[in-house]
Structures are given as C-alpha cells and as structure tokens.
Amino acid sequence: MSRVLIVGAGLTGSLCACLLRRELQNKVQIVVWDKARGSGGRMSTSRSPDPSSHSADLGAQYITATPAYAKSHHSFYSELLSSGVLQPLHGLIEGLKQKDDSKNYVTPLGMSSVVKHFLSESGADLFFEHHVTGLYRRGASWEVERKAGGSETFDAVVLTMPVPQILQLQGDLGHLLSVQQRQKLDGVEYSSRFAVALFFSPDVVLSFPWAARYVTDSPCIRYIAVDSRKRKADAAGLGPSLVIHTSVQFGLEHLERDKEDVQPIILQELHKLLPGLPQPISIKCQKWRYSQVLTSVPDCPGHMTIVNLPLLICGGDAFSHSNFDGCVESALSMLSVLKDSLTP
Ligand SMILES: Cc1cc2nc3c(=O)[nH]c(=O)nc-3n(C[C@H](O)[C@H](O)[C@H](O)COP(=O)(O)OP(=O)(O)OC[C@H]3O[C@@H](n4cnc5c(N)ncnc54)[C@H](O)[C@@H]3O)c2cc1C
C-alpha cells in the first residue's frame, strides 16, 4: 500500500486527502501533517478563551460561487449545503460589491468546518504540531524531516503551504527545481493583513444593523464583521464576536512589527469607527503574512510537479487563485497526478 503525506491541513490539503480517499479507497494510506495546533489554515476559526463567547473566523469570511463555478464545482457545493456546513448568506454586508449572479455562502460553525468536513471524510491519519523542515530523496521514497526532530518516509509527498514556506524547506527540493520552476515560484506574491477578534460577554448587544461592513475611509481597517450575525449563529446564548481585517497597505507597512504592538493601533482606529463599542472579555490578534495571492504561479494547471518518482507535487491557492474554488481546482488537479502515479 502506498503511503502519501499531505503537508497542510488547510482547504487544499484536506480536500486533496478526501478526493484521494474517495478515488483510491483502501489502496492508499493518507497521512496529513500540519505545523499548527488545529486544522483550517487560512480558513481558521478561533475559539474565545472564555467559553461564553462566540468563535470568530480570523481568515476567510464567506464563500462566493460565480455562476461558472457553481456549475463546474456543483458537487462540492451541494455536498456542503446538504450536510449543513454551508448556508446561503442572508445578513447585510455593507459595501459588498456583488458581481453578476454570484451566490454567497456562510458557515454556521465557522470557516474551519469546511476543512474539517473534508478531513473527516478523508479518514486520513492527522497529526498537528508536525512542522516539516526538510525533504530528502531516498531511492523511491521521500524522507520527510520534522522541526521537533525525527523523520518518516513516504512514497509520495504533496505540499500545500504558501509558496515562500515551500521554498524554505531544506534538503533536496532546492536543487530538484528547474530554473524555470524556481523563477515561477519566486514570482508568487501575497498580500499581508492583520486580523483582530473581539469576544464579548453574552449580555452585550451590538447596536449597528449590519452583519459585516467594508470600510473605505480608514487607512487601517478594511473590513469589520459581527461574526455570529454573519453566520446567523446568534441563537446559542453566547456573546457576540467581532472580527476586524486591516487594509493591505496597513498590513504591508506593519508587517515586520510584533502583533502585540500593532493590536493597540487597530483597536484605536476601531473605536474611531465604532464609538461606544463595549469592552470585550478577550481579544486575539493574528498576523497573516501570506494572506491572499496577488500573483499566482503562471501557466500552471493547479499544481506543479517537482519530481515524478518518487512523486513530489506542490499545490494550493498560489497555483490557481485565492478562494474556495481556487483550492478546489488545485486539489482536483493534484488528484489526477496522484491517481496516475499511485495506480499501476
Ligand atoms: C484574511 C483573509 C481573508 C480571506 N477571505 C476569503 C474569503 O472571504 N473567501 C474565500 O474563499 N477565501 C478567502 N481567503 C483565502 C482563503 O482563505 C485561502 O485561499 C485558502 O484558505 C487557502 O487554503 P490552502 O489550503 O491552499 O492554504 P492554507 O490555508 O494556508 O493551508 C496551508 C497549511 O499548511 C500549514 N503549513 C505551512 N507550513 C508548514 C510546514 N512547514 N509544515 C507543516 N505544515 C505547514 C499551515 O499551518 C496551513 O494550515 C482569505 C484569506 C485570508 C488570510
């Protein structure tokens, strides 16, 4: 039985694991490693340290299906809708530029529930706090090294982390890339943002009418969401949560500063936009160094094959585009390579 390692329990890695299981069933052992303490990647949902408040989506906010993707990815949308993971967005989003006949969806249990759905369908052996630091070719296998020490060997490896993190890996990857592949990967660019979540106690009522709002008149803040209201998940008797995303320009200007130093600047700006905002019971700040892809890998079918045997491929939103459908495209394209490589 082939052993496949998928690095990254974000949407691309989780969906790739799920599709591979559905295609090859018990003919493959699928192992997923992520350096984080939980799944989701940039579709992460953070719990409040105090269990009386609602959780908060610090990364992706909602899923937009264009008419073309609603058709070509119909099976994914209908699976997520029928299992209750996705629901149509009904809340008011001020300043949302609705394009053509696109449909917006929210996740009542938070964005990470999309990733968790595919991970549980995959039946993969899932390991968190497994930070990959190096890849070494050993005959027909890959030896994969972890930051905490130790290594394991696999017949095929799939890398789904942001491209700069792929390029940081030690071992054989660097000299196995062709000059052209290296140039393409070096050209990938991401925006950077900070996200802040404010968690409130259950007696707090936020008086503004919107579920989310795009801000155009602040140098610092670009987006604010009442996360519980956006997801239509107010009912549970939990306190509301508020999520703030900074502008890309602010993210860039403060990128090298510690998030602890940047958080007060964001909060000061928030109080100018929402005077009288009640005091939260806790606050969480996240720096997204690699937020959304600005320049993706050119002329690429959703993945890049570095070595055919033993198989080493890279995928993720940088190989398509930065949203749900981009990750689906990448996972589908990696599935076809894995299938060809793993079936005799
Ligand atoms: C602020 C923000 C807002 C967004 N808004 C939206 C939105 O509204 N709608 C939408 O559709 N998309 C949105 N996106 C984009 C969307 O979140 C991404 O396109 C998608 O989550 C990318 O998934 P991925 O699996 O390709 O990568 P990731 O989610 O980045 O997953 C990669 C995983 O690899 C892990 N990893 C990294 N390095 C290593 C290593 N060395 N060893 C082990 N594990 C490692 C990481 O911990 C991570 O879990 C947003 C993103 C951000 C940041």
Task: Report what the structure shows.
With 344 residues, the chain is α/β, with parallel strands linked by helices. The protein has two domains: 2-37 and 128-188 and 297-342, FAD/NAD(P)-binding domain, CATH 3.50.50.60; 190-293, Polyamine Oxidase, Chain A, domain 2. Helix content is 29%, strand content 28%. The strands form six sheets. It has a six-stranded mixed sheet with strand order 9-2-1-13-23-22, covered by helices on one side. Helix 1 (11-24) packs parallel to helix 4. The termini are close together. 46% of the residues are buried. The model has no long low-confidence stretch (mean pLDDT 95). Residues 7-13, 33-36, 41-43, 59-63, 131-132, 160-162, 165, 193, 195, 245, 288, 291-292, 316-317, 322-324, 326-327 line the site of flavin-adenine dinucleotide (FAD). The site of flavin-adenine dinucleotide has 38 residues, from helix 1, strand 16 and helix 11.
Q: TL;DR?
A:
By secondary structure, the chain is α/β, with parallel strands linked by helices. Helix content is 29%, strand content 28%. The chain has a 6-stranded mixed β-sheet, with helices on one face. A 6-stranded mixed β-sheet has the order 7-17-18-19-16-20. A 4-stranded mixed β-sheet has the order 12-11-10-14, with no helix packed on it.
CATH homologous superfamily heading of the largest domain? FAD/NAD(P)-binding domain
List the strand order in the largest sheet.
9-2-1-13-23-22
Q: What can be said about the biggest beta sheet? A: 6 strands, mixed
* CATH fold-level name of the largest domain: FAD/NAD(P)-binding domain
- Cofactors and ligands: flavin-adenine dinucleotide
Unreliable stretches: none
Mean of pLDDT: 95
Q: How many discrete structural domains? A: 2
